[in-house]
Write a structure and sequence with these properties.
- It is a single chain.
- This protein is α+β, with helices and mostly antiparallel strands.
- Helices cover 22% and strands 32% of the residues.
- It is built from seven helices and 14 strands.
- The chain has helices spanning 43-56, 76-83, 92-102, 104-109, 182-188, 192-203, 238-242; strands at 8-19, 23-24, 30-31, 38-41, 110-114, 121-125, 128-130, 133-138, 141-147, 162-180, 219-228, 245-249, 262-266, 274-277.
- A hairpin with a 6-residue loop joins strand 5 and strand 6.
- Helix 1 packs across helix 6.
- The longest helix is centred in the first third of the chain and has 14 residues, at 43-56.
Length: 280
Amino acid sequence: MEILKNKIDFTVLVSVKMANPNGDPLDGNRPRTNMDGYGEISDVCIKRKIRNRLMDMGYNIFVQSDDKRADEYKSLSDRASNELPKFGKKDEAQYAKAACEKWIDVRSFGQVFAFKSDNVSVGVRGPVSIHQGVSISEVEVNSMQITKSVNSEPSDKKSSDTMGMKHMVRFGLYKINGSINVQLAEKTGFSEADAEAIKECLRTLFVNDTSSARPDGSMEVIKVYWWKHNCAIGQYSSAKVHRLVEVNKREGVEIPVSVADYDIKLNSLPELLCEEFEGI
């Protein structure tokens, strides 16, 4: 496979309607928000969705979630010990190379291999970096108490109806930025084909991602902006490129309730082309 030779930047706009895009375990699993009331989606959450999509596309994934595990291994150490050749303490480079060749998420996002069962401690830096998603405007979080109508355990008496709380964002438009670094791609073997796979994952980010917190249709990829520079280090900084996508509330809109309440504008920089496409 041809190794990536040109730096890539990307921006994804995601809408959320009556769903919990990323619950905060430190706040009763309420949707993540910052101190100013803007919604957040962690980079770890986004990478998990990309990994799941890559698995759907037939790629080998090292960090698999328990509910989508495609092999018999119940831990990362078991997967590494059984799927990689045995190396000595002086063979860290060969270990990292084998892991990158085996798993696309390792050569994309990197990974730390430090398990008691192995003789090596290896860290891999991946070329694909993803920022946390942040909403364009403050989000309103709605909560409801949910109940159950049957007993969980055998009993002659009806148990309490209270089951818990369910939280959701009424509506939010989130912006996710990311980049792919050529120098790190050369070290992990990240290829042009891998970049295309990441692009497809971003376009289809919420396929097979349905849950009680995220019903079908509640999460949608609105736009993906994909800039491929004409050199390895990039014609412009990632910060300048990501600022090319401007999203502002339309005049007269106080509380946005749909994407139509925003003006979305794509600016440009000289000699930097952008591929723009909608999500599935």
